[in-house]
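(Structure overview)
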Amino acid sequence: MKKLLLVSVFLIAISCGNNKEITQVAEVSCGQCKFELDSENGCSLAIRIDEKAYFVKGFKIDDFGDAHDEHTGFCNVIRKGEVTGYVEDGKFIASSIELVE
């Protein structure tokens, strides 16, 4: 009986986990050029959710094409994306970013 209880608790803990991830549509762009973030040097990918911007960890700014492209680059335009991840220590830890435009 103790083993069954222990296995049950273990399986519940694994299934619940520490899943802090959320999926939502957010603005995606360069943190320095478009969101006025200055805690990193150079151009870096960032998202903005509810008027708060976060640098992204897990993806790079050029993963979605040339960041300095005049029409689609994140240093020149703000795009929309469906993002999955969570905020930790002031950064958005992303497991998925899919542009919707």
